[in-house]
Amino acid sequence: MTDAAVIRVLVADDHTVVRAGVRGLLTLSPRIDVVAEASTGPETVELFRRHQPDVTILDLRMPGMSGIEVMKAIRAESPGARFVALSHCDGDDDIYQALEAGAQAYHFKTVDAGDLIATVLAVHAGEKRFEGAVAARLRDHVAAPMLSPRELEVLRLMADGASTEAMAAALEIAHHTVKVHIRSILGKLKAENRNHAVATALKRGLVHLD
After folding, report:
1. CATH number listed for the domain at residues 7-142
2. Res. 133: pLDDT tops 70
3. Which of 113, 110, 152, 155 lies closest to 134, judged by CA?
4. Residue 2: pLDDT above 50?
């Protein structure tokens, strides 16, 4: 493919207005052609199979399958697939998961036309692009201690407002064990109490309030 070749793009977002906005921004570049739009995770996978786009721009939170699941499903079939994650999620864990799933770039939905077009061109050329705020979040994530799968389960229950007794019953573990996990979570998140831990987890994208 030559440098002047048109880049075929699939746009995936569950909001019609967002898809229209992204399409409008991309039409400012003669090198980019939006070949398809998807509104759900499964539809994104199907349209990727049908159109084999050069670059896929997708939201991380969509019906049916998350953007993370979509990227993993597509890359299982097409390892060379290239993605730009475009999301309102600004937690460093959201960003890190997107990177791990295969995203070559990550933008917040406040991105302007010039940056989005430059990112599509860069990703198509095999480069990675992470704006300053995203790069900072990634550095914070790498520097922070990782929570274990069990600690994440406890954290999610904490975010739901569950008591220690309710968490012990839900996870089928001892009351004392729950307290041990909570202490570990507070330490790793540098939180003063449960509410502080939940607030920190929400900010980092470790849990979400749906």
Report:
1. 3.40.50.2300
2. no
3. 110
4. no
